[in-house]
Every structure is written in structure tokens, then in C-alpha cells.
Write a structure and sequence with these properties.
2 copies of one chain form a homodimer.
Chain A lengths: L11 H10 L11 H11 L6 E10 L3 H13 L4 E4 L6 H10 L5 E5 L33 H7 L2 H17 L6 E4 L8 H13 L3 E2 L12 H4 L9 E4 L9 H10 L4 E7 L6 H6 L8 H11 L2 H9 L2 E3 L2 H12 L1
Helix pairs in contact in A: 6-7
Chain lengths: ~325, ~325
């Protein structure tokens, strides 16, 4: 099986995708500095506050990912993470969630199964969500194949089932996001995601940067939804030598408001090399580099120097609910 | 979750289990020396031939198991192995099966999910086989819990689905056996296993040693079924220091006929330590010891000295079919 590039949620790919999928408008509704100040005020922060969620994706997919992500969370430099419910190492991270109720763990809603040698299917019976699975019986390998086939009603049933399964295992999710951005691939899928999130009173990863390509997005937001200024997410164009500099530059460029930095933590070990076989992008060495950067003293110092406050989805959700009362 | 002892298919546990489950008879129908000679003659071997299937269990469960088992198969000292269809590393071993059609790969029919941190469910939708899953939605952790709850009709549907799934992924199974011996736990489950095996023209792991505890077994055998003299399978009472001696003694004691030696191969690496967390029996160090023994020069020499011929399930099946014509 040929592996594929994975969606970077940085605007450019979303833009390319959205250009075809959505009718474009001339004016893109993005949050103004005044709106950012109002958001920070609602959260109880001064107008120049720079808040950062350092977020590890993909927990539950591999033991290597679980180990490195737990280490990241416990270093204090990773503030949040999200879990893939259909994967085989879910029991390990569910046990961690039960024994660490303070950990900020959301759900990485999963509608794709992207690796060659280790795969998974939906939580719901395949015959109830046939549009979600490929001919081999697993979830589609790419977000584009998935979104081309998915019936949004089946996606909705599946993500509701993933939330129910998480809760049944004792996970109380603090937020939602979408593995490989599959739920960000069309208006219908975005609507599905927000409907499910609002029904569950959960915040969703969403960035101002996406509004230009998906101009309907603001209309889907509820009064308590929180929009990131920027999502910092490293892509395949960054070389190993330029890894730290990419993150350092991005952090130095942070503006007042809330930013999310998405990292993929794992060790470059046999298991992770097996998972990411033949696919260096988001592979084992990539994840080891992410792990080394986010658990480094240099990262800790940089956050202090730039006067950046790490926050969690749980804190942001609580403050929004409190402010909304 | 507390882990549990795993069934050793050596007669004593089967006997203990069977004593409760089956009506006992005074005479246990076991194969006579004459029957062994007749079997060897049908297979085209002299009457004193000692044939051995060295068989690795549990492929598909972990990358560590796949890697070590493939290395074992390719050393020439492991002649056969079987695959767990519900597990997440199935695509890796299915790819190997497709690219190595000569490999003797059967199905390790799976009705239990025994580890704490990494688990799996049935191939069929859970709502079609509700008696197979525990309250957490996975297969039961032990063969005793599983067999206490399983409706044999649902077990039959599930193992037929596992065979169909294997074939859909390009695996042409050479034989069947039962993970943790769950399908050896009652007469109804044995009947299910043989019915499915006969319908698929596949041989099943079965040993003469089991006849005393399960006196109905011979009546379930078809004319082409092949019964092992003995199954060599190391148990938790053997210390690490006594590992090689256990196997050496068992091999030196082999009698004419066919013997199966069941091994569990993996590396003592982070992934396997995670899988077998808190469970040294059949754990990562155990599997590393098995790997070291079966790929050793000492094992190769021993087989030569004892004039033991390694055979595969495929060879035995073909010879039986040919003889039956």
C-alpha cells in the first residue's frame, strides 16, 4: 500500500481543499484585535496575554506514542493531548486517564487509518457505517479518500459512538479535534463536528486561519466556542536540522490570544518504526524530534522569556462557561 | 485489571477443566503404536519417523511478535505459525503472507483478549456476537470466562468470519488452532471448531494427550484429521535457567509420529513489555527466551542428532489428502 501525505492544518492545504469545496467570498470574517481582547477578558487575562495549548495528538495508537506523550504531559511542557478511540492501545491511555483525572485529555475523533502495517476500523459495526470503511474493512487511509466517501450521518453516528465509548471507559474528554483533519474537509463534516461538540458541551480545535478557506465557519460557532489565533504545526518541508528553529520562530511570533501547538510525540523505537514503515512524514524520527523539543529546557526557557502561559482545554472551557453565566 | 494465567494445552489443565465439563469414561481411546505406524505410512514416512512441527503462536498481536516470528520462520527452525485476525498488526503479517506464499501460516482463532493495556474485539459486529464480549466491549480476557459466556453458535459465526477475513486479505490458511485454547474448553466448542475446520478442509491442532480428558474427541475427527503424539509447550513452572533443558528433554523424549512444539516468539522490547505489563507468564522475557532457543545452533544440532524431521501443516495436509484419494 502506498502511503500518503497527511493533512497539515495550517491553512494552505485546507485552503486548497476548501477552494474546490466551498463557494468563496471576497471578505473573510476573521477575529479582530478587539475580539481577541474581549476573548482574553472573558477568560480573565489581560489584553496582551499570550496563551498556548501545547497539544500531543494520536494517543492510543501505539505504546510508543502513549509513553512519550505521558512523559510530555508529566514534564509540564505539554498541556493537553487527545485520544484515538478505535486503536488497540486505548486501554493503556484509558487507564492513565482514570488514574490521572487532572490530565487534559480530549478525543482525537478518528475517521482514518493511515499506516500500512497497523490499522483499525470504526467503533460502530461496519455494516452500520459502510461509508467509513475501505475495501479492506478498515477506515480509509487518507482524509481525502475518507471525505470523498463518508456519509456525514454515518460520521456523526461514529463520532458519537467514539465519545460514548470513551466515557464508558472512564475518560471524561476535555475537548474534541479531528485526526488528520477529516472532519475539516467539508461544510457538512464541519457542521457534524460542531453539532456533536455542542451537544456534548465540548470545545473544538478551530483556528481563525481557516476562516478564509471556510467562510461559513463563524456561522457554525456557538457563543462559548473559542477560536485559536494560529495553529502551530510542523510540516514535511522542515528539515531535522531546522526543527527547533521552526518552533522557536513560531513561538516568538505568537500574538495575544490563544494559540495551539500540535505535536506528535513518540520514540524512534522498533514499534514506531514499524507503524510508520516507509513513511518518514509524521514517522518515528519526526515524533522523537518533537518529543525532544517539547521536553527540552530550551523550550521551557523560551516560554518564560516570551511570557507565554500554557493553558489547557479544560481551563479554557471552564472559564468560558463561567464567563457565559 | 488483574491478569490471569493462560491455558497451557498440556493435558493437565485441559484435564482439570474437562473433569468438570465432560462426563468421564473409564477407557480413554488413544492412538496405538499400530495407528501411529499407519499414520506415518499414509504420510509416506518409515514407521520410526519422528516428525516435528515447530509452531509460533500469536502472529498479528504485536510488531515485536511479527518480527521475531518472521525471523524464526526464516531461520528454517520454525516450520509453522498462526495468525490472530482481530489484532491491529494483522496488516503486517497479511502482507508477509501475500509476499511469502510458501510460509506455513494458519489461523490462531481468537476468542479472548488477555492483556491489560492492549485489547481487541471480535471481527463480527459486537451486536451480532454479544456473548463473546465483556462489559468493556472487548473479547473476554480468559478462556474460562470466555467459555462460560460464549454461545457456540456465535463462536461459530465469529471463527467463520475470521477465516473469511483472512482470505479477503490474501492469507490462505494452512491450518487452524485456538488462541488460549478457548475452543478446547467444552464439547460444544470442540464440535464447532471441527465443523468449521472440516467445512474449510483444514487440519486442526489436536493431541492424543487430550483424549483422556475429552473422550468424545475421537468421534469428532474426520478420516483425514491428524492427531499429534504430544504437544510440547513450556509452562510457568519452568525457570529461565531451565528453559533450554525443558525443550531438550522434551525433544529427546519424542516418539515416532507427529509432535507439535508450540513457541511464543517476540523480543523483550518496549512494545512487548507494554503488551505483557505485569504478566511475566507468556511475557516479553519469556518470548525472548523462546526466540533465542528456537533460533539457536544448539536447537539445530539437537534436531539433527535426534534425527527429527521438521514438517509443516501444509505438507501434512497435502499428504493426507493425497493418501485419502
Amino acid at each position: 500500500m502506498k502511503l500518503r501525505a497527511r493533512l497539515v492544518i495550517t491553512g494552505c492545504l485546507l485552503l486548497a481543499m476548501a477552494s474546490a469545496a466551498f463557494p468563496q467570498t471576497q471578505t473573510s470574517p476573521s477575529a479582530s484585535p478587539a475580539e481577541t481582547k474581549a476573548l482574553l477578558a472573558r477568560l480573565g487575562y489581560p489584553p496582551d496575554a499570550k496563551l498556548l495549548i501545547v497539544h500531543a495528538d494520536d494517543l492510543g495508537m501505539a505504546h510508543s506514542i502513549n509513553r512519550a506523550s505521558i512523559k510530555g504531559l508529566e514534564s509540564g511542557l505539554v498541556s493537553s493531548a487527545s485520544i484515538m478511540i478505535p486503536c488497540s492501545w486505548l486501554p493503556e491511555i484509558a487507564a492513565y486517564a482514570r488514574s490521572h483525572p487532572e490530565a487534559d485529555l480530549g478525543l482525537h475523533l478518528t475517521l482514518t487509518s493511515e499506516w500500512a502495517l497497523n490499522r483499525w476500523g470504526p467503533v460502530l459495526p461496519k455494516d452500520r457505517v459502510p461509508s467509513l470503511v475501505d475495501s479492506s474493512g478498515y477506515l480509509y487511509p487518507t482524509e481525502t479518500e475518507a471525505s470523498a466517501h463518508i456519509d456525514p450521518k454515518e460520521a456523526e453516528a461514529e463520532i458519537r459512538a467514539q465519545i460514548a465509548r470513551a466515557k464508558a471507559l472512564g475518560i471524561q474528554p476535555t475537548h474534541l479535534d479531528s485526526h488528520m483533519g477529516t472532519l475539516y474537509q467539508s461544510r457538512a463534516l464541519f457542521e457534524t463536528l460542531f453539532r456533536v461538540a455542542h451537544d456534548n458541551q465540548l470545545l473544538v480545535r478551530v483556528s481563525k486561519e481557516w476562516f478564509a478557506a471556510a467562510p461559513f465557519l463563524p456561522s457554525l460557532l456557538g457563543p462559548d466556542d473559542v477560536v485559536m489565533n494560529t495553529i502551530i504545526s510542523i510540516g514535511p518541508s522542515v528539515t531535522a536540522a531546522g526543527w527547533s528553529k521552526f518552533y522557536e520562530d513560531a513561538i516568538k511570533n505568537m500574538q495575544p490570544g490563544i494559540t495551539e501547538m500540535i505535536v506528535h510525540l513518540a520514540y524512534d523505537d522498533e514499534e514506531m518504526r514499524g507503524v510508520s514503515f516507509n513513511h518518514p512524514d509524521w514517522g518515528s524520527e519526526w515524533r522523537q524530534r518533537d518529543f525532544q523539543f517539547v521536553t527540552s529546557d530550551a523550550f521551557r526557557k523560551l516560554l518564560q522569556e516570551q511570557n507565554i502561559k500554557l493553558v489547557t482545554w479544560r481551563e479554557v472551557s471552564k472559564l468560558m462557561k463561567k464567563a457565559g453565566k
